[in-house]
Amino acid sequence: MNKGFGLIDTIIGLFLLGLIVVLILPIFTSVYNQYSKINSKTEMIYLGESIYERLCSKDEYSKELIDSLTHNDEVIFDDVSVEYLQKYESRIIKIEESESFLKINIIINPKSNGGNISDVEFEASILK
Fold first, then answer.
1. Quick one: pLDDT at residue 123?
2. How many domains does the chain have?
3. Could you tell me if 103 and 119 are in contact, meaning their C-beta atoms sit under 8 angstroms apart?
């Protein structure tokens, strides 16, 4: 008499387990997508800040870039690691120029906008 109830208990248990998995799986997918967006945004912020620090350091590449900015309104910053070059494009736009400083806007764009990630922009001033 208990043999039939064991089969029904197993079927009900599998049904409940399947129902829980179907309800929980979209939550995990959403969490993973949000994590990926946050990770990309954090990388873009880090890249923008490191570009600004590099421009302030006055090394050879930075000096050439600043000289180029005095003649052009926009330049591409491409002296970063290959990993960042594949993922992001870094542009520097001249906003204002005076004798002693340049007011610039650093814009980091994702090359593939898979998660609808917006650009990261920094407005800064650098001494010439």
1. 92
2. 1
3. no
* Coil vs helix vs strand at 125: strand
DSSP run (H or E) holding 106 = strand 101-110
> Residue 1 above 60 pLDDT?
no
Structure tokens at 113: 């906008």
| Structural domain boundaries, residue 78 | 3-127
Instruction: Return d(Cα 87, Cα 43) in angstroms, integer.
Output: 10
Single-letter amino acid, residue 109: N
Provide the pairing of β-strand 101-110 with 120-127.
antiparallel
Q: 27, 102 in Cβ contact below 8 A?
A: no
Contact between 90 and 76 under an 8 Å Cβ cutoff? The reply is yes
Kindly state the DSSP code that residue 1 receives in the 8-state scheme.
-
**pLDDT-based confidence at residue 13 (cuts at 50, 70, 90):** very high
Locus of tokens 């998995």: 21
